Amino acid sequence: MTAHENCACDAPGPKSAEELLREHEAQLGELLAEVEEEERDREDGGVSLHLAGLDLDRRDFMKAGMAVGATSALAGCSGLGGGGANGNGGGSASSHTHVVAPGDHDEYYGFWSGGHSGEIRIVGVPSMRELMRIPVFQPEGARGYGHDDQTSQMLDEAGGYAWGDSHHPILSETGGTYDGRWLFINDKSAGRMARIDLKYFETDAITNIPNMQACHGCAVQSPDTKYVYGVGEFRVPVPNDGSLDPDDPEGYWSTFAALDPESMDVAWQVRVTGNLDNADSSKDGKWAFATGYNKEEAFEIEEMTHDDRDYLKAFDVEAIEAALDAGQAEEVGGVPVLDGREGSPLNSGSDPIVHYIPVPKSPHGCDVEPTGTYVTASGKLSPTVSIIEIDQIKEVDDPADAVVGQPKVGLGPLHTTWDDRGNAYTTIFIDSQVTKWNVETAVNSPMNSEDAVLGKVDVHYNPGHLQAAEAETTSPAGDWLVSLNKLSKDRFLPVGPIHPDNDQLIYIGEDAENETGGMELVADEPVYPEPHDCVIAHRDKVSPAVVWDRADYEGEKEFVTDDTARIDRPEDGRVHIYATTKRSEYLPREYRVTEGDEVTFTVTNIESSRDIIHGFAFPKYGINLAVAPQDTREVTFTADEAGLYWIYCTYFCSALHLEMRSRFIVEPQQ
Ligand code: RUQ
Ligand code: CUA
User: Fold this and answer.
1) Structure pTM?
2) Distance CA 643, CA 645 (A)
3) In a mutational test of the pocket of ligand 1, which residue from 364, 467, 535 has the highest number of ligand atoms less than 8 Å from its CB?
4) Measured from the CA of 649, which atom of ligand 2 is nearest?
5) Which bound ligand lies closest to the C-alpha atom of 278?
């Protein structure tokens, strides 16, 4: 297909940039007016689409969609930033290829959250090839996660939930940059925080955080990861045992938690006023920040969005530690909790533990820029990003005076990321765009002006997070940016009514005085529902093992060899089988137990060549182990039914892989 067959040049009236801007202004005016409206027309009649809290009706919604469509058509005709380069098509519309040749490696590791798939995905950037998935909050067969004793026990102890909702992957830091040791990921569904060990790319700890439902924001304390921060979004009664009046907001809590990254224990919590949302740390570690909404402490969306302002909360880490040392915490749910609500004693002195900084309603993204001078709160229901000068927080008498800039970036700003040249990039949900703006220009311009805006690029459609390479460090790379778009609509072959999301790769390596400020859309990538966020690290900062180092589990599990493979019967009713796997057999070759025996398998893959993994599938008991070279896995079950069952290998490991199986014989009780 030529570019022109796909071009909407003949479509009626593509609008000029000015017309579009005017339209967005008008739309915004209507939107905000409607949010404020007390009385609402609740007659639906199936005509208008009432969006609770926004009350944007179908007419406006369609208009927003049309405006975006028109911009795309326009861009296609002028050759600017159009969505022409698609997936593996290789950037014919872009001078910047993202194609990584067969056999070559990507420059960056991208760690994507999987949303309600509860996992982490590893994506090569810039190729956008998905390299691996790491199950976190739910069992998964291919990697045998939740199938062996260790991981199934970990999932059980973390609450035994069937799934999780992972949003904000964050890498551990040393000296303000990614150190490749751990990745942390929140679970919004259940108030949990998990840790992934980046030597083995496996989940190795999950903490069920007390006094919290919906751990949403997730951040590490810069520059050296003394804490991992988990942010409680939903307000819940504490204790949540039915003893409190559900209609009394007083009994509801929202807490900000700090975990020790080594032990994954909760070090402390701070109870706050209103909901919490997203989080970040100052670059010197002295502050943690969280956006929040619902300072009204309401139960229904209309009331939650009632007030004009919400807060960015600034947690003074030294003041918090001092209050803990002074014994001012109360032990609740087994962890020390400080009262950081507005007007609490700990907030009333000269050194409040939490500063409440008013910003326009329902701020969402919370991002500290690379120099550590400013923290930003992206507006969500305001078309602005608020810039707070961190050093001013303690200086000003009126907390609102710490807000030193407020560029107008578009309708529905959600999250902000950074390049290495002082520029910020913000996702604009309603306008379906990414806006590029300059931080210092914004600080030096009048509030609410567009002076700092350098350009906008259309994305498809409705972006949530975006992330640039190395953007959480003190020195972002400034080349690639990914916009994680919630809707793909018509971008791909239809696959039924549940659509993939669309992650779009944008080159940001060059500044230019054009419509997009130099941003170039390079690729589309359909993704399984539904990543929320990602973090992108240079490959030099991550060095996974390619086979297991058995010293890492010495003393915990036996490394079985062909010489020590055996069947032990330590007591009546207990069988412990020590087995090896190699191409293409298990040793011992056959297992005989008695009906009712409790059986433990300790299985070592004695291979040392990379990528020779053996499966150990036991369909009768719902078990599939994936045993990597030099690794050992253990699984325990009760052989409760007499019969013969084949154990077989699930990884295609050799020409005789199909023959790789053993008989497990359960003899009837005498
Ligand atoms: S939130 S789309 Cu869960 Cu990160 Cu803003
Ligand atoms: Cu071992 Cu297939």
Assistant:
1) 0.88
2) 7
3) 364
4) 2
5) 1
